[in-house]
Every structure is written in structure tokens, then in C-alpha cells.
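As a warm-up, study this chain.
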Amino acid sequence: MTRSHDVQALSDVDIHVYETVASQVVENGVAGLDGVVHASGLSEDEVRGCVAHLIEQGCVVPRGDGLALGPHTFEVWY
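Now compare it with the structure written out below.
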């Protein structure tokens, strides 16, 4: 998917989860749901909801048993 993403459609919590996924992808190549839940400090239900929205927006993509970053047109500073 190469469409432009509307980052303004993401909530603050979505962005928090995206940043958590991104930091784990940088460290491990893939982000596992349990690790994202633990690192984000959010409940599993909140993370699952955000991940579903991030996948729908194309910001995050499933990869094996985990998550990876989709094509993006913005940067995350952390």
C-alpha cells in the first residue's frame, strides 16, 4: 500500500501505540502484542483497538506473529 496516510486521523493513544511498535521494530525487527501492551502501559483491549485502527490506516502491518511498520510519510522522534 503506497497511499498517503492521514496522521491527523490518529488519536493521541494511536500515536502512542505506533511509537511503541516503532521502538520495538527498531530493536527487534518486529513488535509482539504482549511487548507493546507492556511497554505502552495500556490495557490489551486498548492496544488491540489502536492496532486495528493503525492497520486500517496502513501505518502498521501484521508480520508473522507480530507487527511491523507499514509504508509511511512521516517520522517519529523518540
